[in-house]
């Protein structure tokens, strides 16, 4: 699997383009804004975007979702528990964050344990509620995309609708830091880290 990280939008949310190098079939994780930059990267690599996967449905992670959907006709995937949020500007906060309203219906509702094929590459969905009810992580071999559940040295906020400090800590301890220490973590904001580093240094987990 190949990958590009692109901090996009006014909140610099990490968008990840991942693709199977044998087939050039791709998925985009969290298209947070700056569609033209995102389109340029996709076109430059000659990728066929099959899926748009949302780690959750907050506005800073969906700012270019409408344009990317129109351009690629890829399927929008969101966890069942964030499905309604994506359709409602008040729930996804696009009426307050960013500069445009986003209200879209996902093509598919995903759940814990689902497997998504990107060419010959397998992605596994891990439901990690706490930042939002439908927050997910996406695992491929020793890579984990954590959205706003776990950051390098921190965790996602829990004061928005559907957030829960108890749930996010439970998700991290029971579903993320149990993974092998060498697992590379790619969060929704900021730099990458590893499971080992977070177990040792993250103040929320010590």
Question: What would you note in describing this structure?
Answer:
With 206 residues, the protein is α/β, with parallel strands linked by helices. The chain has one domain (2-201): 4-Layer Sandwich (Metallo-beta-lactamase, Chain A). It is 23% helix and 31% strand. The chain has six helices and 14 strands. It has helices at 35-45, 65-72, 83-87, 89-92, 165-176, 195-201, and strands at 2-8, 13-19, 25-29, 48-53, 75-79, 108-110, 115-118, 121-127, 136-140, 143-147, 150-151, 154-155, 184-187, 193-194. It has a six-stranded mixed sheet with strand order 1-2-3-4-5-6, with helices on one face. It has a six-stranded mixed sheet with strand order 7-8-9-10-13-14. A two-stranded antiparallel sheet has the order 11-12. A hairpin with an 8-residue loop joins β8 and β9. The chain is globular and about 45 Å long. The termini are far apart. The relative contact order is 0.15. The mean pLDDT is 96.
